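Long-time lurker. I teach an intro course on protein structure, and each term I like to show students one example going from raw sequence to a predicted 3D structure in token notation. This year I'd like something fresh instead of my usual example. Would anyone be willing to generate the tokens for the chain below so I can use it in lecture? Attribution to the forum is fine with me.
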Amino acid sequence: FKLAIINYRTTKYENMEWVIIDTSDEDQRVKETLPPEDIWEQFGIKYITEESDKSLGYLYNKAIEQTTNNTVMIMQPDDFYYENGIVNLVKKFIQSKKQCVGMSGYGCFHISRYISMINVVPIYMPYYGRIYHGSLCFNKEFWESGNFSEDGTLLKPFLEGRTTEFQEIYYENIMIGLIHNLNPRGGIPDNQESNGCHFKLSEKVFKF
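-- Reply from a regular --
Happy to contribute to a lecture. Here you go:
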């Protein structure tokens, strides 16, 4: 979660709010890593706790209900945003003149095995199954007319039949996903050798 804090702190964007849904055990709550509660409003922070058995769609929907701005983006705790990444994402969204933007492929880096890769979903999957939910940026009204599924395919009711209102974007200068033993996305083979980092990560990020 500390990575999410860095993403938020390094973003210079007016009137930004951050809705956090914490599903961790009580003794592992991320609340202690946040600024003091009496200045949350100053930083646009809204903090909500939920049971860990709730579906991702339920958690997303609950968080978006709490937002007051019309432009919404989703940030996963294991995604690293470049210094201007969030701003670049919102710019891409505005420039698209669509209701929603997102990525079907994005860079990933295994932080302990030093492996760079591009994470993509097979092309035979339906379009709503190929878009990475953690890359989405959209108008709140778009979500209101098609929420995330709480008990099925996450993006099906959100994107199905509405692809003319969606535009795919490229991940470069926006974000990459970080892979570790507790987050094995990408299906890297056990015998895959290190190929180094190809994603312009600074020494500070490596040390972190």
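Some talking points for your students: Residues 102 and 136 are 4 Å apart (CA to CA). The longest helix spans residues 85-96.
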